[in-house]
Fold:
Amino acid sequence: MTDWIHPGLVIFLGAFLIPWIKWRRVRLAYFLLLPLVGLALLFLTSSGYFGQIPAWPGALHKWQIPFLDYSLELGRIDKMTMVFAYIYLIAAFCMNLYAFGVKNNWEHVAAMIYLGSSLGAIFAGDLFTLFFWLEIMSWAPVFLIWFRGTRKAMGAAIRYVLWHHFSGACILAGVVIHLYHTGSIELTRLPWGWGGEYLGYNLMLLGFIINSATTPFHSWLSDTYSEATPSGSIYMTAFTTKTAIYCLIRTFPGVELLMWLGAIQAVFALFLAVLENDGRRLCSYHIISQIGYMVAGVGIGTEMAINGAISHALCHIIYNALLYMGAGCVLVVVGTAKFHELGGLYKYMPVSFWLYMVGGFSISGFPLFNGFISKVMTIEAAELIHNAPIYLLLEGATVGTFLHTGLKLPWNMWLQGKDEPPPNIRAKLKDSAFNTPIHMLIGMSILAFLCIFMGVYPKILYDQLPFPVEFIPFTTTRVFSIMQMFIFTFLGFWFLRRLVTGYPTYTLDTDWPFRMAGRKLIWFCEEPLMGFARLMDRKVMEVVDLIVWISKNPVAAFEIKRKEMLLSGQRLLSRPGSAGLCNQALEEEKRKYPGELPGLTLGASIIFILFSFLLYLALYLFAIP
Amino acid sequence: MSFLRRYPKRFFWAAFFIGLVASLILDILWLRSDILHYHFPFQYVPQFFAIFGLLGCMLLILIAKGMGYFISKDEDYYEKDSRRQV
Structure:
């Protein structure tokens, strides 16, 4: 067990110590140190301290633990796991800096558990271990949402866990079916196709598709990330979806369905983003759109496409955290990220604006920013398989991405052509150009530096990718065509800029049928089902009451009932009103009921008993065969 | 630099229009002299990326606004008629 130390497990277990450290400074230093410890362990691993990592697709196998009849593998280390883990930990360090000012220690704990479990999933070498860590990953963010404390956040957290438990159940079912047929739990490339014999694999694919927020199951992402705490949501942007992309690359590379889903998703999310009014929801739709590139890359499945998907996932972690931090800054400082309440903030938060813009340029794919070096790889892969629709969809998504994150969001939040923000927002700002807390700006600066550094010097990323890269991103053709496209995108935006200002609306998404079905189910339980139950209750009680009433004095009761029936018969035959007197006599009789119980004579009693015996005899002779 | 600081908006627009015109001219020149290499025939249409960017952007906004007629709801759409207040 000492031949390797699991960085994910160290962070996972270390997270629980955070709230027990009394001194605030020590606690925060410890909180910052956790990802650094993880990074140090990774560095030791990649430098060969625990054994040399063989060339792709070879892997270093560590921590194989016997469990029942199987061998669980907690550490499968190869080029792909290393590059994912490095980026996770570097990003997590910046996120921890950003979350420095959070008062709630348990939020830090949840974030570090989340980080540790996603590292665990990355290092998992078999399907059971992967499932175990994925389940922890589906719980940790729930607390990051809950700690927001609003009623909407409560609901969003529950929906989050419902989606992820459903996907977890799908993955587990798939794993069990796979295990039943093959007897193997190795995490490796799986076959895929339509039809009954592929049921398990389809279930697993469905689980990963939900986890990676692929259309049409993307709505949980925009629904829940925008309700999380400002710093908690930043952790969420990075880990869940990218881990799912990692799983897809491991298990289902080259599945054509994914190529189409990804390309459609890249564009579809942008349509919804146009209507969005909340800055963080808009960024969420951009996560979904960018995931489209990765999923399409996995679906194309060539070496270049897989490289493109991995590098895009990693660049995406960095720039999207930056975007979310930018929108989160505004939320922290002025308390809202809704476009219709903002505008003109530039004068008071210029640094966070420019840091955000670095992220905005990166996600759009400007040359010399890191989105460019990864995005063109996937697009080039689509060009090389000569699939024009996929190419056009992905290129169109680039246009839309620039339109939203590069233009719409900064325009609506920081500019809107105003010099001063609205008065109620202005009241929350100090008279300086530095309204954002400094630790947030430091965290953002490191990420912004990484965005530019990787964009200028892509070799540092390309060398870490599993397949050898002979790809030069900066060609005249690519740089020129993308710049021309962006110039004209800006022109289009400027013509229609009035249309993309925010309105206080909520945009329905593909989760509408599910949420409506849930609502209808609750309505069905509360209204018709409960109504039926109450009706049944009343009817049964009426019968019981009647029996109790009759048994008080059966003779008089039957007399009253007989008279009642006679009376109703008379009423039917005669004119209305004539039965009044008779009715009054009956009412009198009912009021006196049960009255005096009639005594039974001896003879009547004997006859009654004999009659009972007779009934019993008849039953005995005829009814029982 | 002082011009940029004094008139940032004017500087931006000047740079923008220079870039716009330059891209239109360069596209024709470079396509003729075979500097640009593409994979699909439609990419060789003159000014393809300019048209793609402009039309793509405007269509995206207009179609989305059309969709908004059906799917844009009040902010409390899901909270509105839930009777149980937490």
